[in-house]
Amino acid sequence: MIENIKHTILDKAIELFKKNGFNNVTINEICEICNITKRTFYYHYDSKKTLLLDYFSLVDENIDNALKDIDNETTWLDKCWKVKRIYINGIANLNADILKNLIKIDMEQQNHMFSVRLNNFDPNMKRLRQMVIEYTRKAQETGEIDADTPAEDLSYCFASAFLGLAVNWSSTGGNYDLVEASKKYFDLIYKKISSP
């Protein structure tokens, strides 16, 4: 029951943030839409900031469902993109204002949520990154992509490029398709280098 209330608060708050902007939503409005008291809100979250940092728990709920048909992908590189797309979709489903505030809060609190290296902030994100590295290695072993660059470095390179894209996307008001732009970077970074 308690987790359901926490989930409802998070879900409804994200809806409000998307509609009205993070800075324009008050805790009173969140409580009103959730039909809870401030005391209940503060039982679950210290502030709007801590609530927003919990956003990826919503993404985490869908990871196993999104991965259930990964074996249907025909190549290791397709599997790699599918895993990366789970995280990218989680970001793209936010609006630019929410992402900008999420990045700002993460930087202020030094949570390293957006660290491009493996971290322990979110075990599911760590799991996805490890899957990407494994699929990248397999793609290299089968000749789908260049084997000269270590899989970890390719993953790091894409994560860095994506972080730059995400920051740019949020700072420009989300005026382009983040998933499409990410796919272009993915293709550039993971593209097999043909032998002469």
From TrEMBL:
DNA-binding region, residues: 26-45
Entry's Gene Ontology molecular function annotations: DNA binding
Top-level taxon of the source organism: Bacteria
Gene: kstR2_2
SUPFAM superfamilies membership: Homeodomain-like (SSF46689), Tetracyclin repressor-like, C-terminal domain (SSF48498)
Organism for this UniProt entry: Clostridium ljungdahlii
Record-annotated HTH tetR-type domain positions: 3-63
Gene3D superfamilies (alphabetical): Tetracycline Repressor, domain 2
Keywords: DNA-binding
Name of the featured protein: HTH-type transcriptional repressor KstR2
DNA-binding as UniProt keyword: yes
Entries under InterPro entries matching the protein: Homeodomain-like_sf, HTH-type_Tx_Regulator, HTH_TetR, Tet_transcr_reg_TetR-rel_C_sf
